[in-house]
Structure formats: C-alpha cells, structure tokens
Write a structure and sequence with these properties.
Elements: E1 2-11, E2 14-24, E3 29-33, H1 40-47, E4 55-60, E5 63-65, H2 70-75, E6 78-81, H3 93-97, H4 112-125, H5 141-154, E7 159-163, H6 171-186, E8 190-194, H7 198-204, E9 207-212, E10 215-221, H8 227-235, H9 243-247, E11 261-268, E12 277-282, E13 286-290, H10 297-304, E14 311-315, E15 318-322, H11 325-330, E16 333-336, H12 340-344, H13 351-356, E17 364-365, E18 368-369, H14 371-384, H15 401-413, E19 419-423, H16 431-446, E20 450-454, H17 458-464, E21 467-472, E22 475-481, H18 487-494
This protein binds adenosine-5'-triphosphate and magnesium ion (MG).
C-alpha cells in the first residue's frame, strides 16, 4: 500500500532519519519500534505531509507520491493520530473532529446537527461516554487521546498511522481500540503502529520495523521474534528483559522505608465523588496508586497540589491548608503531571531553561543566576536520564516525545521536594530509559523522600512500589503491601 524508500531528514545539527525505508501492507499492522529519539515520529510526520522537505521517495499504491502538506496527504488517504495530541483546547469535541472539514448544508452554512450526530456515532464506536459539545480542555488526557483517535477514524483513509495511541489510555479503552484496529485490518487498511508497550505489539502487529539512531535496522514478521530480541535490536546490544534486571535494578527492599510519617491525608473528598480518602506516606516510601481511567487518580493529585480548592493535609505532623500550588510547593510537594503539553514544558525555551526553571532561586546568589550552576544542573540530568539532545541549548519542543518527558521529570527532581507526586511518569518512555527513572526514584526514596506514583502499568507499579493503594470511583478499595500485591488482586480492587 505504501512504500517509503531511502528517506533522509535533517534538522539543523541533527540527522533525524538516515536512509530509512519502510513498507506498509494492506490489511496488516506494522509496528515501528525504537528508543526515544530514534526517529519514529519524524518518519510518520513525513508520511503524513507534516514535513515536506526531505530526501527519498514515497509510493502510495505503486504510484509516486509527494505530499505538499497535511491536507494533501489526507486527501490521498493518509490519516495520522499524533503522539503529541493536536487538539484545540477551547473548541468542543465536535469542532475539533470536524476542524477543516466541516459539513455544510445546501446553503453553504455549517450543518451543526449533522456534525454533532456523526461525532456521537464515533464516540459510541469508541465507547467514550462524553458529551460532543464539551470543550477539549475539560477532558482528561486519556479522553483527549480517544478524541484524537475518533478524528482519524472519520477520514476514510487507506493508511492509518498511530503514534503511541495507547500512551494515555488503559484497560478497557485499549481493548476497544484493538477491536477497532481488527476491523480496520479486515477492510484492508494499512496501519503503522508506534508503541513503547512491546506486549501490545505482539497482540496486534503482523510485521515490525526497528529504527535506531535514525537508521532502519531490521524489518520482519512479529511471529519470528521475541520481546528480548526486539529490545536488543532497539538498543544495539543484548539486554535481558526480566523483571529483576529491568524494573528494579537496585533490588529494592522495603527496609529503607522509615517509620516517620511524612504525609497524612484524612477525610479527603474528591470533588466528583462522595467518598472519604484516608492514607499516609512514610519517609523513604514509594507508594503506588493504581486504578482505571476515571477512578480519581489524577483528581487526587490535583487536590493534594491545591488545584481544586482547599485541601487539609499533615506534613511531618504539621497540619496545613493547601489552597494553591504555591502552598503545595512551600509544603515540600512537587507534581509531575500527566499532561505534558499543558502543564509540562515551555516549548520555546531551551532544554537547560526547562530543567532549571523550578530551581532558579537555588541557582542564584544575590539575585544573579549562576550560569555554571545552571549548566551543571542541566548536564547532570541530561546524563542521568540520558536525555537525547544535540545540546542543552536546543529548544525543548524539538526533542522527541519521550525526551521531553524526561526533561519534565528532571525539572521536578531538581526541586528536591519532600514529597514527589508522579502521574504516569514513564508514559512514552522507552524500556531502557524507564529503568533509569526507576533507579532515580529509588535513590530519592533512599535519601528520605516520599514518592507517590500513579501508574496504569501493572508490571511497573508492582516493580517499584513499597505499598500500593487502589482507587475506584474516588474511593480507596485496596491497600496492599508489595509482598501481597499481585496483578490479579490489584485489578480486582480496581473494578470493585
Ligand atoms: N523539529 C525538530 N528540530 C530539531 N530536531 C528535531 C525536531 N524533531 C525531531 N528532532 C530530533 O530528531 C530525532 C528523532 O526524533 P523523533 O521525534 O522522530 O523520535 P521518536 O523515535 O519519535 O522518539 P520518542 O519515542 O521519544 O517519541 C531526535 O533526536 C529529535 O531531537
Ligand atoms: Mg515520537
């Protein structure tokens, strides 16, 4: 269906793609695999007309194709679900889905009823229970991701590109997406599918292509490879994926958890739910929070961080009223939010500035910023978290999705908080970099920090936590010591 040959793409100072070739076949899912910064999104942007300036050729249905822009690519049958969601926050779900391809009636006027109705059909297909006329900004990231998927489904495309479509959705939503993908396959669509969740690929993909440092390393049939084989092709060396080596590199034992209570939450009620939440966090503890989409995990963090009115908490036995994020930061809290486009990065600033943003005061003397301290800080995190960037002066918006996420984590780690709240911290991060982040979390915990991590990935939450709380509809339905928690027990509590 589509064949890209010898594609090379350079940005100033960076060769993102070097002679890459890729074939997509009708009725099949081709997985595109590679570490953060390998060139996956760049290749997909070329195939969908986002970048028009590149070397190499694209053939669509055996005919040379050259897209002059995204509109041209759409018209020729290419749909893309972008990794960084491309929705307009102040427009409604319907307006976003029909943006640039509005339905008009015979008088040339917008046919709002028709658009609303079609949107409803798409939302039903995705089993997404939201009102088509709600603004995108009022949706959670997971819901936004489903709207982005709905948008791509509206086009009757031949080729559908999905760049990390499941990074913000879990469980039932993922199953629904996979059902839809199975239907798309039956109707002969060619699908390119990017994901760092390798297990998914074995469920839905027929073929794979591995990219490494902008080069195509290998393509083949999924049937002929194992997860370990794929990972070693990705990183260019043997890397054994077993729970112990990848997920808990330092072999954490629960004894680093002290008896001192760091944070105490009593009778907290989340705005949408009418339930009392009570729990505490100890020094040196990593507390995992598991739950399905909509269970109230992000709301819990928002409440603790003073984003939803006043929250009463105790930090080191001192009762505090948190009325704003400023109060929260003063109390020693830091929040790495799940929505990196909205709360995470400042796109027009450098990687260095984005990392030092939260600690400018510490890096200054008498109000003057010490450039050498700022450089040291940036360099430390670029190397600790293996942030792939040509230099610390690169604008952060030019980094790959996973590398932006690493910079956000760095920015909050730099504040040396007492209590670190991490909402889906490893979303979009490759398997190798994940273990670096786990290692850092463990070091921080060992130095006396308390960490609360929300994660939808069961293996992850089981590997890094000392204790796991489960939320379901705004209520705590489980509290497991790590030794008694299993995937099954967590899931059971999550649907309770
Ligand atoms: N607009 C840009 N300007 C400069 N460099 C860029 C730009 N876009 C991408 N790059 C660089 O090109 C390389 C490939 O990035 P790309 O986004 O394609 O990676 P990716 O494989 O999608 O990674 P991830 O898994 O993190 O999403 C990276 O080194 C990135 O920093
Ligand atoms: Mg990407």
């Amino acid at each position: 269906m589509l064949s890209a040959k010898n594609i090379t793409k350079k940005f100033s100072g960076v060769t993102a793609l070097d002679n890459v070739s890729l074939d997509l076949q009708s009725g099949k899912v081709n997985a595109i695999i590679g570490e953060n910064g390998a060139g996956k999104s760049t290749l997909m942007k070329i195939l969908s007309g986002v970048y028009t300036d590149y070397e190499g050729t694209i053939e669509l249905d055996n005919q040379a194709a050259k897209f002059t822009g995204t509109r041209a690519a759409q018209e020729q049958g290419i749909a893309i679900i972008h990794q960084e969601l491309n929705l307009i926050p102040n427009l409604t779900v319907t307006e976003n889905i029909f943006l640039g391809r509005e339905i008009t009636n015979r008088f040339g006027l917008l046919d709002k009823a028709a658009m609303r109705q079609k949107t409803q059909v798409l939302l039903d297909t995705l089993r997404l229970d939201i009102d088509p006329s709600v603004s995108i900004k009022d949706l959670k990231v997971g819901q936004q991701q489903l709207v982005e998927i709905a948008k791509a489904l509206l086009l009757d495309a031949k080729v559908i590109i999905m760049d990390e479509p499941t990074s913000a959705i879990t469980g039932a939503e993922v199953d629904t997406l996979f059902d839809i993908i199975a239907d798309l396959k039956k109707t002969g669509k060619a699908i390119a599918y990017i994901s760092h969740k390798l297990d998914e690929l074995f469920k839905i993909a027929e073929t794979y292509t591995v990219l490494r440092d902008g080069k195509s390393i290998e393509s083949g049939n999924m049937e002929e490879v194992t997860k370990d084989m794929l990972v070693s092709k990705m990183v260019g060396r043997d890397l054994v994926i077993s729970k112990k080596s990848t997920l808990s590199p330092s072999g954490r034992d629960a004894s680093t958890v002290s008896n001192d209570i760091l944070l105490k939450v009593d009778n907290l009620t989340l705005s949408k739910f009418n339930q009392n939440i009570n729990f505490s966090l100890k020094k040196g503890e990593i507390l995992g929070i598991f739950g399905l989409m909509g269970a109230g995990r992000t709301e819990l963090f928002e409440a603790l961080f003073g984003l939803n009115g006043t929250t009463k908490i105790e930090v080191e036995n001192t009762p505090l009223s948190i009325k704003s994020p400023a109060d929260a930061v003063k109390a020693g809290l830091a929040l790495v939010s799940e929505d990196r486009k909205k709360d995470g990065i400042i796109p027009e600033l450098s990687v260095k500035k984005n990392i030092s943003l939260t600690t400018l005061l510490d890096l200054s003397r008498n109000g003057i910023l010490s450039p050498s301290k700022e450089n040291d800080l940036a360099q430390k995190y670029i190397s600790d978290l293996k942030i792939k960037t040509p230099s610390d002066a690169q604008l952060i918006k030019n980094l790959s999705g996973g590398n932006q996420q690493k910079a956000i984590i760095a920015k909050w780690l730099a504040t040396k908080p007492k209590i670190l709240l991490l909402d889906e911290p490893t979303r979009g991060i490759d398997i190798n970099a994940k273990s670096e982040i786990y290692k850092l979390m463990q070091e921080l915990a060992e130095s006396g920090l308390g960490i609360i991590m929300v994660s939808s990935e069961l293996p992850e939450i089981l590997a890094v936590s000392d204790r796991i709380l489960v939320l379901s509809e705004g209520k705590l339905t489980g509290d497991f010591d790590i030794n008694e928690a299993t995937e099954e027990s967590l899931l059971k509590a999550a649907i309770a």
